[in-house]
Structures are given as structure tokens and as C-alpha cells.
Design goal:
Layout: E1 2-4, E2 11-13, E3 16-19, H1 24-34, E4 40-43, H2 59-74, E5 78-87, H3 108-122, E6 129-139, E7 145-156, E8 172-174, H4 186-190, H5 202-214
Parallel strand pairs: 3-4, 3-5
Antiparallel strand pairs: 1-2, 5-6, 6-7, 7-8
């Protein structure tokens, strides 16, 4: 299996990589997405890797920071995701601070309430437009980092609906759909269309770009 990143003149045999996340839900999703390509994955928590502080100004910055730290610590190729919810009426917040809005206990029920309260306080008219962004960073032992970004637009709905996702999924209804991400199965969200059309899930859309290299189409 080979992967061609941003530098089309270089390829990499990719049989194993470190997934630089301590979030079990995110690790499970990335493993699901990688499963068809036969890539062995090692989670950061399994390897007892430290979590670097996310000091980047963009999702791509933070993804690159985490992937590079894991690659340096292990000498392996590392994949990291940084993703979050951006709300139009809140100037793009919570954005890169999406996880921090949930606090140290990762209480996303409280985070979703905080989003709603901020919108009400701002007097923002409905519909409340929002989008999810995912940036995947693939860091190589030679220091090269490839970035793949995906985005999905939609509206926020309250009260939260569904228990099938995690994070802000229960309040996000993607355009063209009646259900929230919290009401959709992983298979529905992760499925990458064989006809080349966009996947539904923001992380799957970013992964489509990475997958093109994994299947030799980059």
C-alpha cells in the first residue's frame, strides 16, 4: 500500500501508524475508516503518550502539532485529527476551543447548553447555521506533514436529539437531512461513496482525500 501526500513526488509504504488521540470515540471512528486499507493502528493512550497542549490557531495547526509529537515520540508515522463545531452567529466559536467548552470532564451536554445559551444571549435569529470541520494530519518520521481537511454545513437544533454520536453530534443537523448526527449510525456517517461523491461526515470527507492516496489515486 502506498500513500502520496501533498508532495506528489514522494510515496510511503503505510502498513502501521499511531493514531494520536486519547479520545476513545475518535480512535474508534478513525479505526473504522482505516479498516478497509489494512493499516494497523496504535492508539496514543495504549502507548502512554503525553497529550501535547493544543496551542494552534487553526484545526490544521493543532492536528499537525499532535501528529508530529506522536511521530517524534515513537518514530512511527502518526495520524491526528483536530475537529470542532463552528457557529456562524458566534463568529465561528467554539471552533478550535470546541473540546474546551466541554471542560476538563468532557461534559458535552454542558457544552451544548453553553452554545444554546450563547445564541439566545446574542439574540441570533434562527436558523442557527453551523459547520463541522475536521483536519487530518499525517506526520512522517522524516518530518513531513500532510494535511487533509473536510467540512460539512448544517443547522443547530435544540433540544439535543439522539445518542448515537459523541460531542456536539446531537445538536447538528446536516443540510439535506432531517436527523441530527446524534441520530445517525456510524455506518451512515462514515460511509465513503464509491462514486466519488462527498461523504456525509466531516471526518470522512477529510479521510476521502487521504484515502485517495491509500488506494493509489493521489
Amino acid at each position: 500500500m502506498s500513500f502520496a501526500g501533498a508532495d506528489a513526488g514522494r510515496t510511503l509504504s503505510l502498513n502501521r501508524l499511531v493514531v494520536a488521540t486519547h479520545n476513545s470515540g475518535k480512535l474508534r471512528e478513525i479505526r473504522d475508516l482505516l479498516k478497509p486499507y489494512g493499516v494497523e493502528t496504535l492508539g496514543a493512550a495504549e502507548l502512554k503518550l503525553d497529550e501535547p497542549e493544543e496551542t494552534g490557531e487553526t484545526f490544521a495547526d493543532n492536528a499537525a502539532l499532535k501528529a508530529a509529537a506522536a511521530s517524534r515520540a515513537t518514530g512511527e508515522t502518526a495520524l491526528s485529527d483536530d475537529s470542532g463545531l463552528c457557529v456562524e452567529a458566534l463568529g465561528g466559536a467554539p471552533g478550535v476551543y470546541s473540546a474546551r467548552w466541554a471542560g476538563g470532564s468532557k461534559d458535552f451536554a454542558a457544552a451544548m447548553f453553553r452554545v444554546e445559551a450563547a445564541l439566545v444571549r446574542a439574540g441570533a435569529p434562527k436558523p442557527w447555521r453551523a459547520w463541522f470541520v475536521s483536519a487530518l494530519a499525517l506526520a512522517h518520521p522524516d518530518g513531513r506533514i500532510d494535511i487533509f481537511e473536510g467540512r460539512v454545513d448544517g443547522e443547530l437544533v435544540f433540544p439535543p436529539r439522539g445518542t448515537l454520536g459523541f460531542g456536539y453530534d446531537p445538536i447538528f443537523r446536516p443540510d439535506g437531512h432531517a436527523r441530527t448526527f446524534g441520530e445517525m449510525t456510524r455506518e451512515e456517517k462514515h460511509g465513503i461513496p464509491l462514486d466519488g461523491s462527498l461523504a456525509l461526515w466531516h471526518r470522512a470527507r477529510a479521510f476521502q482525500k487521504l484515502a485517495a492516496g491509500l488506494s493509489g489515486r493521489a
